Each structure stands twice: as structure tokens, then as C-alpha cells.
């Protein structure tokens, strides 16, 4: 084993249970062992996924959070006897791996419940909610400490929980933990005085206005969380380990407003001084382990860091809080295994919590253990497959129903949490397949085809593999994207794929001797010649890859994700971007996680980037652009204008029975649409 | 009574045929054929809707199963 990881592979104890190493897989919505937003049941897909992680060597696995009462169907988790009967043999099998498993039990979402438009409509109407309540009770699902505004839906306040409801829930935590212990589960984690979920809303003074025993003083605000651990210890046994998912600092400036890295701000949620007292109260109450990071749903990017945040972004705060307790502490949030091992060896941290890397590469623990780090497919923190709750100004959660039901999948690795749908089946009829275009779609096609036993041949018109993703990965903070391109290059080389660089195919008829053709020719920037002076605009490749001189003030025509990311990159260089967007919000895209988009929106505001919404550019001249907004036209001085109005597909040739298309040449999407379609097509060749 | 039995019998036959059709469509070779007939775009769009319908149908099934002793 590589010495730098040695500390990661040492055992530690949570209460009475020994965890074989310091690697903790955090809970991820969708990977729940008892179903996700469904009536509780033993979920075989999640069971398969979690068992594979344990076999890879994850020391402690936490399946996706499980509400103590079903969101759909309203049954308490301890009421489904058949589920526990199925769980017992599974745990016997699981323990053969040597790993441990804690179930994460959730006290609800409160105001963080990611309501969709139909749920918001129910929640706002007492009569409709009452009628629907035997199946789904939105008002109960959104209930919180006090009447606070929902994170996702405007004009929807949480209703306060009654004392009876709280005490009923506390009892069911204990009853569920008892059943889990009897079924062989090693412990539970309470979800959560963390991320602005329900128990966190009770704990934070600005979200809890109660004047009963659950509001007011810090002890009262933590009473819900402390009664839960006491109920569990009483019903499941004092030696049954109970972990707590905990946010050290809320990093929140107000409702729906997060704090930027390094920002000096007044904390709206829990600050460090209060946190130092909180952890001592919780330890005294009986919690055995703190699984920590930062953030709330209002500052969501701290709990689910996109690439814009640095590695180990929560480590300093977590290590600080560890000094105030004797129980072990884990840290989550873009954790680098090398740094984590150093901190554990130095006695400043007890465990490293990593979530989404476990979705992308099912063998990453084995790979670091055996010194094969360059074979690890990196997580790019896009959240497109695993966590794509999305929201723009005035909307509720825009996630599709299909995605709502299937969180915890992976944009880069389709078999994750859908292993029966996406699988490599060796072909009985090997074919020679021409793949045109060496972007991510083309390379993924080659890898899938090769693994199935076909002979793919890749044609790329430039001298480099990566396609348009080279441009997307060129920003300073996109190191994971660059690692992903390198991973693809390594894999196609390792698989011995035949590659023809600098070979442009414009006529499919020139391809002789191939049984099938897959066109992955991507897209080109959309143009808008109706704008006077449009020819002066630069595209993203010219800005980011060719690094054309753009001066100080750069105006982006369009406020989508690419524009905002490029603008943020310019901000980091000390330049002054300006954004003109036709719509009512920046990054107004479905399926892009609010953790990612809210960072970009908050960053633009914090860095005082001028953003003109409901506006268009009508003319581009030397040193200026004319902008037409709701209040008329005005001149904006700028040194360069970047075309951020999107892309158009550029397929080659006609489709046919043996000619397929994959990626942006079909429709503009993201890596998930590209990679999943590559599998959809290549599994059927 | 006779009518009721007839209706139940018809429902059972239709249910059985539906079940067989679903099982058949789950086979890789059947999916390959369907894709070549329908074209890949239509096939993938239909497949995604069918899967969603299956997911939603699973809700009442899980609910009823949980009520069983």
C-alpha cells in the first residue's frame, strides 16, 4: 500500500463498534435502503449498490437518508415488518465484507423540502392538502419548528410541528432503531442538525420562534435532537452507536443567501461560537460520532460543493470543532484522500467522509490502496445525475418526476443505481464500428463497444481528444474536468482503441468496411447575425483555450452556466465581466443542481458583476454594446463581447439503420445526456 | 354471477398477456428489434416513459406489500 494513505486504512471506534478503516461513505439521497420518496420497502437496487461499496473497502457505509415517516403513504418506518425480515439476511451478507453499515434516519425536511409545482399547490391549499394527506401530506412534510419560508416555493411557509407530533416522532426514532439493531444493522445516524434540515431548523435561532420547551434557549432548540438520541439509547440499547450529521457553521447570510469562500459576513444560522457549545450538548446527550461539514439549503454549495469551491473546503472548521468533544469526528466536502490521511495521522481528524466519488467509480478505494490512482474516474461534482434539484427565480423545484424518483445515479457512470438497465453484455456478433468525433461521447462509445467485444475505430478531426469538453474544462477551477479528459485518454489507450487523429469525416460514404457508424460530432456556437456587429464576438474556445486578449471589461451575451462559469473565472483573474441575459434569472436550466447554480448566482452578486436580466444586446461596436432592457436601451462600455447564447448540433450525414448519433449532435445537453445515450446506443449494437 | 366470472377471466387473461409482453420487452434481442423498427430516438423516448410508468406503479405495490403480515 502507498504510504501516504496508510492512516486511512487504520481502524477506529464509534461507541462500541469498530470501523475497519477511516473511509465513510456519506448518505446520498436516492441510495436509500428502504426506497426513496416511496412507501418504505427493501430496495434491492440500493442494496446491490451499497454491498458493492463495502466490497470495495469503504469502512462505514451510510445509505441514503430515510425519513422516519414515509413521505408517500405516511407509514412510520418501524411499521413495515417484511422490510426488516429482508434486511436481516442482507446484513449477514454485508458483514462478510468486514464493513459496517449505519442507517441514516431523518427527522424530516421542514422548509428545505424540495417541493415541485404540484406539491406547492397542495401545500398552499388546506382543503386539497387534507384530501391528499393519506397519500402525501405536503404540509406535514414541510412542517418545521416555526412558520418559515420554503427554500423552493414562494408563498409557502412551513407550519409549526405540535409538541405531540414531535414526541410521536421521537418515539418512532427509538422504535425504528430497535428494529434495525435486531436486523443486524451496526448503528444509526441522525439526520440532521445539518444543512438546514428539520432538526437544524429547530436548532437555529433565526428559524425557530417557538416559546415552548423546543424553542428559546440553545438547550431548548436542541431538545428535539437530544430527545431522539435518548429515545434510541433507551429502546435500542445504550451501547447502540448513534452518529449525528452535523453542520459546524451554516455559512448563511439570510433566507436563500449563502456566504462565499473568504467572505466576511454576519451569520444568519449557526456560527462557530455557538457551534462550540452545540457539539458539547450533543455529546453529553449521547451522540457517539459527528459526521460534519458546513452549510444549509440557503448556502447549499458548502454541503454539496461544486467545482467552484476548493478541495477540503470544510476541513478547518471541522478540525476546530473536534477540539471541543471526545467523540470521533469525520469531515465531508471535497475531501482529498491524501490530505485526509495526513490529518488523521496527525490526530486532527478521525475519518474522511466521501460521497459522490463512490457513485462515479465503484473501485476507487481499491485503486488508491493498490496505487492505481490514475485509473480512478473522477467525480466532476456536476450533480446532473445524482442530485439535480434545480430552481430559478419564481420557480419551484424543476426536477422531472423521473429524476425525483431516482436520485443517486451518476452522470458519468450509468450503471450506478441502475445496474439492470445499464450493463455490459458481451456481444455474440462482434462488429467493426466507426465512431466519428473524439469528444466525451465518442470516447465513451468506444469504451462500451470495446468492453462488449466489438472493434471500435475512432476518428477525430483535431489533433487532440476531448472535443468541446476541452473548452469546458479550461477554467482555473475545473481541475476535475481536466482529470476526466485525462482519464478518458488513459482508458482508450489502455483498451487499445484504434484512433485516427487529424482525420475529418464529412461524408459517411467514405467509410468502407464498417458494420455500424456512430456520429458524435457535437455542436458549434449559435450565431445571431441579426445583432449588428455580431461578428466581433468571441466564442468560449477563443476566450478560454486560445486565450485571446479580451481586456478588462468582458460582456457575456447570455447568462447560462457556461457564461457564468467563464465570468467567475475572469473575476478570479481580477477582471470585470458583465452579463446580459434575456430570461429572468441566471443559469435558468432544468437538471442543473441548485448547489451549483446558487453558487454562481451568489458569486455574481458578491463580486458585484453587473447582470442585466430581461435584456438583449442590439448592437456591438468598438468598446461598447447597446443593451435593450425593460426600461429602454442603454450603452454598456466593454472591451470584448463573448457569445454565450448557446450551441447548435452539427451532425454529419443522414441517420439510418446502421448510422447512429450520440451527444450534442442529437440535442444540446450535458455530460449525462451524452454518456447515457452512448450506453443506450452501444448496448444495442 | 356468470358475467362476473367472465369479466374476471378476461381481466386475468389480459393481465397475463400484459405481464408476458412486459417480460418479452425486457429481453435484449426484442429491444434491439424494437429499436430498429421504431428508430433510436422514438425507441429511447418510449422506453423512458415506460420505465417511469413502472416506477409510479411500484408505489401502490410497495404500499400494499407493507400492509401484509
What does the model show?
- Chain A contains 22 helices and 27 strands.
- With 685 residues, chain A is of the alpha/beta class.
- Chain A has 3 domains: 350 residues, TIM Barrel, CATH 3.20.20; 127 residues, Rossmann fold (3-Layer(aba) Sandwich), CATH 3.40.50.720; 119 residues, FAD/NAD(P)-binding domain (3-Layer(bba) Sandwich).
- In chain A, strand 12, helix 12 and strand 13 form a beta-alpha-beta unit.
- The model of chain A has no long low-confidence stretch (mean pLDDT 96).
- Chain B has 69 residues and is mainly alpha-helical.
- Chain B has one domain.
- Chain B is 91% helix and 0% strand.
- Chain B contains 3 helices and no strands.
- The longest helix of chain B has 28 residues.
- Chains A and B meet through helix 2, helix 15 and helix 22 of A and helix 2 and helix 3 of B.
